[in-house]
Amino acid sequence: MSAKSRGPVKLSFERKTVRIAINDIAPLHQVAPAVKKGVKYRQICSSIREVGTIEPPVVLRSGEAGKYIMLDGHLRLEACKDLAHTHLVCLIAIDDEAFTYNRHISRLAAVQEHKMIVRAIERGVPEKTIAKALDVRIPTLRAKTQMLHGICSEAVDLLKDKHVPVHTFGALKKMTPLRQIEAAELMISMNIFSQGYAASLLASTPKEQLVEPDKPKKVKGLTERQMDMMARESTSLDREFKMVEQSYGGDHLELVLTIGYLRKLIDNTRVTRYLERNYQEIYAEFRRLVDSGQGAT
Fold it and tell me: Is the pTM of this model over 0.85?
């Protein structure tokens, strides 16, 4: 489709941000006291206190002159109230479609946060300021800064938009690059990125796929013998999976053809009557195969 046939792109927001009095913004819901006690809320407060509001909240004109409805940014609004701010710079949504705005926002993932921290340090921002903005201690900030050292670029790319704990990367660092990629793909397929799952993947990693193969693996709660057994079982499962993967296409094709042939037999009234009269067990098995094979075709 050409650019002319698509027509002009409709803007969802006014072109300029607006500085609005906080008292003129009506929230759609109240922030629960339990939320305000959480880590995320403390981080937002610390960030606004140290560097200001980086991402403008989104509001909609209410219809009453000078009054607005908060669409996205309730925590930022509440934090500014708690910090005794009187005004907030906002984006103005043009229509109600902006109510879905928050669904399209990807919250900061671990790899993205790491890159943001490194970029800030390279630009000369003091560690103390960054730590205050993120509401973390200096040692934690330094761990986040070093988080991807020893992680191959392919594994980083796989996990760049995932919420992965720092300690999970610590387990990956003990694996060779190819094993890091395998582990990242397994975490994505299972949608599990916890430190515990990473530790289990490390425990099942063969020694030749470790960065230090001669150094004993140490995983809390597992003996070296148990880890060796897990590694052997993992290798065996990988081998069996690859064999199944190689034959899957041909097996599936044969299954589809077989089910199709049996369905034609079952649909033939004369064949069905003959089988029911003389070979009831075979007919029942054919019927079962046809019924169970509906998804295969």
Answer: no
**Residue 183 in contact with residue 200, Cβ under 8 Å?**
no
Q: What are 8-58's pLDDT values in tens digits?
A: 555 567 778 889 999 999 988 888 888 888 888 888 888 788 777 777 888
Rounded to whole angstroms, how far apart are CA atoms 150 and 146?
9
The whole-angstrom separation of Cα 280 and Cα 274 is: 9
Tell me the CA end-to-end span of the chain in Å, nearest whole number: 34
Q: Are 297 and 256 in contact (CB under 8 A)?
A: yes
Measured CA to CA, the distance from residue 276 to residue 193 in angstroms comes to 54
Long-range contacts formed by 248-257: CB under 8 A, 24+ apart = 252/296, 255/293, 255/296, 256/296, 256/297
CB 125 within 8 A of CB 50: no
* Backbone angles phi and psi of 88, in degrees to 5: -145, 130
Is residue 166 within 8 Å of residue 143, measured between CB atoms?
Answer: yes
Place of tokens 């004109």: 61
Is the torsion defined by CA of 283, 288, 294, 297 positive or negative?
A: negative
Buried-exposed string 191-222: b where 16+ CB fall within 10 A, e elsewhere: eebeeebbbbbbbbbbeebbeeeeeebebeeb
18: left (phi over 0), alpha (psi -120 to 50) or beta: beta
Do residues 28 and 69 lie in contact, with contact meaning Cβ atoms separated by under 8 Å? yes
Closest listed residue to residue 135, CA positions, set 148, 146, 144: 144
SS3 category, 9: coil
Helix axes 127-134, 110-122, angle to 10 degrees: 150
Please state at what angle helix 39-51 crosses helix 127-134, rounded to 10 degrees.
140
Residue found under tokens 């990242």: 184
Share of the chain above pLDDT 70, in %: 79
